[in-house]
Specification:
8 strands; globular; about 475 residues; two-stranded antiparallel ribbon; 3 domains; Gyrase A, domain 2; alpha+beta; about 65% helix
Length: about 475
């Protein structure tokens, strides 16, 4: 269903308390994220019933409206336009909203969740480029294998590879920005990681190679640069700050990157790749069972964000992440579970309407509407959805044990939307068959487990 972003934004605004109640606006891949001065002013029921709204979530003090990929960016822009006339007189309100949001964040956030959230803020902005370049790389691979358009494939390879060749620089920019440093200084230090001239240096008896340490090395380098810059800002006289602070930041952090961080991050990156290969080659079915079964709870707790740099490291090393297709099976279990609820609760018109409207998004990998609107409130279907995810993960993991590796060239999409991004060590046919088989297994087990065990007698009686 195509929606009008301006009309949707205009409909959302009064239901969240009006412009005076909105302190901040942002968005991620699927959600409009609002900082509200008084969350109790939200008309939850009316908001959920708006065309185009797939669900709502309250997390870490922010109110989030699920709109889906693509749509969310357009609605956010329209929403910000509606707020623009009031921003010139809303300074005190914005400050109050910031204080309230910070108080809620301090109450709800643990050090681990805060660290993971900041880590996600570094990598999530890179996802659109990873998706775009990943799809181009996939198309180029098909053309090369088929021997078609040889005059075009070198150009496509350049388009697909350029971002990945410099991803360390983007990680450095985002890291410095997130942790309060000057982005260009973070990017400058992180650029050392991919500079070809590092091949002339030997550290701990090992000659460095361009890209050694990858995104982890860039992250560490930019973090160090930010700390050095802050230290300098507090001690260098103002008259010399413009000269000394950037010089010392680049020099100190740069030397530390060359003579320590690249080597250490390279060892960690290699260990991550080796561990992923070993895990799937030796315990593939069991590993898939555990990863697919636990991913939905990890998402609920926000702990899935810890996997973002792992995915990125694997993509940088091997060209694809073998973990994402397994984790995507959690969404398949969710779809199967909600289909079973739809069948079992035939007389619950409201719930069945929610499932019908949210199911297309679920098939495309946007699971929040089904999670927060169906399975989690009912309780048992959330657990049986995890069972479906475990079965699908075990299916994909089993073939990994046989040597058929299925990976994804980008992170973000899942469900059917992941098909264009599939990659691995086999041809396109086996990749499609294994991933599709995993999805079907997740659907079937999620459906069966929910149909048999996931709907309580009380729920059936009240439906």
């Amino acid at each position: 269903m195509r929606i009008d972003p301006t009309a949707t934004a205009a409909a959302i605004l009064p239901l969240v308390g009006g412009a005076a109640n909105v302190a901040s606006v942002a968005h991620c891949m699927t959600r409009l994220r609002l900082g509200l001065t008084d969350p109790s002013r939200v008309d939850e029921e009316a908001l959920r019933s708006l065309p185009g709204v797939l669900g709502t979530v309250v997390d870490d003090g922010s109110y989030q409206v699920v709109l889906g990929p693509g749509t969310v960016a357009k609605v956010t822009a329209a929403f910000e336009t509606l707020l623009a006339p009031s921003t010139s007189t809303a300074g005190e309100l914005a400050a109050l909203g910031d204080r309230l949001r910070e108080e809620r964040r301090r109450r709800n956030a643990t050090p681990l969740k805060s660290a993971l959230r900041r880590l996600a803020n570094v990598f999530v902005p890179l996802i659109p480029a990873l998706i775009g370049c990943g799809i181009v790389a996939g198309v180029n691979g098909l053309l090369v294998n088929a021997g078609r358009l040889p005059w075009l494939t070198p150009a496509l390879a350049a388009v697909a590879s350029g971002f990945m060749a410099l991803i360390a620089v983007f990680v450095g920019l985002n890291t410095a920005k997130e942790f309060g440093g000057t982005p260009v200084l973070g990017g400058a230090v992180a650029a050392i990681v991919v500079y070809p001239g590092v091949a002339k240096l030997t550290v701990f008896g090992v000659t460095l190679s361009p890209g050694q340490g990858g995104v982890l090395g860039a992250l560490a380098a930019a973090l160090l640069a930010t700390h050095v810059e802050k230290w300098c800002r507090g001690r260098v006289p103002d008259t010399l700050d413009v000269l000394l602070t950037p010089t010392l930041t680049v020099l100190v952090a740069g030397l530390a990157t060359l003579y320590g961080l690249m080597w250490a991050a390279g060892a960690v990156s290699t260990a991550i790749g080796t561990a992923a290969d070993w895990l799937l080659a030796t315990t593939g079915a069991f590993a898939g069972l555990v990863l697919g079964g636990l991913f939905l709870p990890l998402v609920m707790l926000g702990l899935h964000q810890a996997l973002i740099p792992v995915h990125t490291t694997l993509i940088e090393q091997q060209g694809y992440t073998v973990l994402l297709p397994i984790l995507a099976m959690a969404g398949a279990g969710q779809v199967g579970a909600c289909l079973a609820v739809y069948v079992r609760l035939r007389h619950d018109t409201s719930l069945r309407t929610t499932i019908r409207s949210a199911l297309p998004a679920g098939l495309l990998g946007v699971g929040e509407p089904l999670i927060y609107g169906v399975s989690l409130p009912l309780g048992r279907p959330f657990l049986t959805a995890c069972a479906g995810g475990a079965a699908g993960g075990a299916f994909v993991g089993f073939f990994a044990m046989l040597g058929d590796r299925v990976g994804a060239t980008a992170i973000g999409p899942s469900g059917w939307a992941l098909f264009p991004l599939l990659a691995g060590n086999r041809g396109w046919g086996p990749l499609l068959a294994i991933y599709a088989g995993g999805l079907l297994t997740g659907y079937a087990v999620g459906f069966a487990a929910t149909y048999l065990f996931g709907v309580t007698d009380h729920a059936k009686a009240t439906a």
